[in-house]
């Protein structure tokens, strides 16, 4: 989720007038019309309808839309998830996004051209949003309570959708995915033709845990018990768990509490997300992991020098080649986003970002290294979808328009050394890779057979 520019002043100007929060939502989560949108052929539609589509990041719970009703703004709701053929959507909980301001003299920034960073004491735009939305008073002041309000809100939508489905078998519904058994049930129901979309809970920045806040083990246990199955220790500023890629000390990494947090979360069967970690934090976070690590929504830093991307790219927010490779070494995935700061503007630029990730994963020296340990290593097994929908970003399509991405990845030319993404490649990128990670990492009881969970996708 990027900076909500003008967010704080807008809320102050609007006060608590009805519709202010919706106006901010509509302005921040817009869909722009790409000039190079490819035609979606009938063949592409048929392929897309056969895919198990999994998206690793949406911030929809931050906003006041009814998830079960189709909205005419924003990016995600249940009707549009169904229209986009999404099988599994990760819903992230966001609690604090301070404004990016001029960096202090002692700031450590990795981009020599950058002059701004995000300090924890800067204006918290999400805090103002709670006021504009008239959410419960405890969410105005407590990051913990703000997080659990969003968690409960998603569960409320799930419960309502299931009651609707009980009354009308054609009505689409959501189900919470907490373990391998749930994942297998989701796959079986979809293959049986049921209109179900899986929902997985994630936390984007556990700011109230560690340091002088909640003890790490207690905080992780509470998140797990609430159904959270993906955790990012940091978001857009440094906290007690580690440094952020957009914070003011971008040379730092994980703290001792941050390392304990990752170990505790991984040990409980939660997926580690390093989307907002610094370069050092990614190096630390991918080292000595027993399970796969993901970067849930990102771009590729080498693309920042490309003409399509240079004006929008947030250099420090996107991954270096060696970081993409570090994630793959854990068996994890890098999930590519569609917003300009990660992928540039236009569908060709978005497709080129997927190609750049593949190029990093297919570097000859890296392939040789991986195949010495894993003879079947394939770069395609480590790329996924990470939209950042509803993350105060502008995208070239909403979730209902995912077929546009499918068409772009099938049709746009690839650079030298990158093969065209055929149907099998798209099956992996769109969902099989994520399914395999969840099957490997989520809790499983003795009756589950995780290794077979994703074989038919």
TrEMBL record:
Span-the-membrane segments of this chain are: none
Q: Name one GO molecular function term.
A: metallodipeptidase activity
UniProt-listed Gene3D superfamilies: Metal-dependent hydrolases
The GO annotation for biological process reads:
proteolysis
Question: What Pfam families does its record include?
Answer: Peptidase_M19
Instruction: Identify the InterPro entries for this entry.
Output: Metal_Hydrolase, Pept_M19
**PANTHER family per UniProt:** DIPEPTIDASE, MICROSOMAL DIPEPTIDASE
Q: What's this protein's name?
A: Zn-dependent dipeptidase, dipeptidase homolog
Name the species this protein comes from.
Limimonas halophila
